[in-house]
Amino acid sequence: MQLFEMTWTQVEALPSSTPVVIPIAALEQHGPHMPVFTDSLLLGEIMRRLEERMSDRILFAPLMWLGNSEHHLDFPGTMTAAPRTYLDMLKDMTRNMLTHGFRNIVLINGHGGNVVPASQALFEVRQELRERDDMLLYSMTYWDAGDPPSGADFSQQRMAHAGEWETSMILHLHPHLVGDISDLQPITQKMPSEPAIRAWITKDRSTLGYIGDPAAATAEKGAILLDHFTNNVAALLDRIIAETMTHPADTSS
What we know:
Elements lengths: L7 H5 L7 E5 L13 H17 L4 E2 L22 H17 L4 E6 L5 H14 L7 E6 L22 H10 L28 H4 L13 H28 L7
Parallel strand pairs: 1-2, 1-3, 3-4
Helix pairs in contact: 2-7, 3-4, 5-7
């Protein structure tokens, strides 16, 4: 079910146990070779595939394209909400659906900078509504929803900004939007301080705005990645739906 296609009376008629998925992405620079809408294009495609599979069980909200992207502001074209503004926006969207009577909310994320705000927003909502025992709040990031991909000669083992994985997926979906990648040199994903978390902005790590190995990208790898990530998210959503059905509050609609 797509929220944007429905009337308010149709939304009101849905069972309160219906999981509501809110996709969150970004509009930000993706190196000299990729469009600024990369995160939203990729998550939008994964959501399209999920809706085809699960439209009878999930209410899908429209994709929220504005993200927490301040670390990319040195690169023109980036648009962002301030971190606290963004966190509050996620809380408001979650509370909107709780106000409408829904009890199971899932934020599905497609941008690294949104990971911490999405988790924090839901923890804050849960703490503010600690007297309630009838709701379940979840956040996930699509590339972390299951095991890493296999079946191709990937040079990267994890997601990196505008690197092999994202570039491959855009090559598969929209090859005309990808510039010349042949001369782009790899930029290491691993920071020397790991597992300590260092505060950084993008230009601290990359003068061109990408991280990883975009030159290793192919459209064939992109097809594998999109199928893999969609399957992972669908499987995790199935587990979430099962949890909502066994939650004490879901013994009735």
